[in-house]
Amino acid sequence: MPRETYFDSMVQDALAAIRADPANAELRLKLAVHWYLSGQWELAADLLDRARLDGVDHPGFAELRGGMTGAPSPTPKVFCIGRNKTGLTSLEAAGAGMGYRPGLRRAANG
After folding, report:
1. For residue 64, pLDDT beyond 70
2. Binning pLDDT at 50, 70 and 90, where does residue 1 land?
């Protein structure tokens, strides 16, 4: 199955699940994030607006809406980009000690 078809199918399944359980805020958030990250901001914004009209709320809605409007994040983000053996693990540990939550990074090749 082509990737686009798979994602279209996944979105259709998510929309059907939302119709079946309109109060499922977590599912609405996941679909809105999917649309936001895939560059479909209008769809994400419409989904968040519809959730508000339906009386469904989730803490992530405000954070996503803020990201879409360029509002500052409640927690500052620090990006550290480097190659192997450049101290990324040490910086990650130092950041964790200061309360920063480490993000994802690709595993080293051994």
Report:
1. yes
2. low
Give CA separation, 107 vs 88, 89, 95, 102, 104, in Å: 12, 11, 19, 14, 9
Whether residues 63 and 101 share a domain: the answer is no
Question: Which residues, in sequence order, are CB contacts of 74 under 8 Å at separation 6+?
Answer: 63
**This prediction's pTM:** 0.57
Q: 60, 29 in Cβ contact below 8 A? A: yes
- Structural domain harbouring 103: 75-110
Do 40 and 60 lie in a common domain?
Answer: yes
Distance of CA 100 to the CA centre of its chain: 17
Distances (CA, A) of 33 to 7, 39, 89, 95: 13, 10, 28, 26
Give how many domains the chain has, as a whole number.
Answer: 2
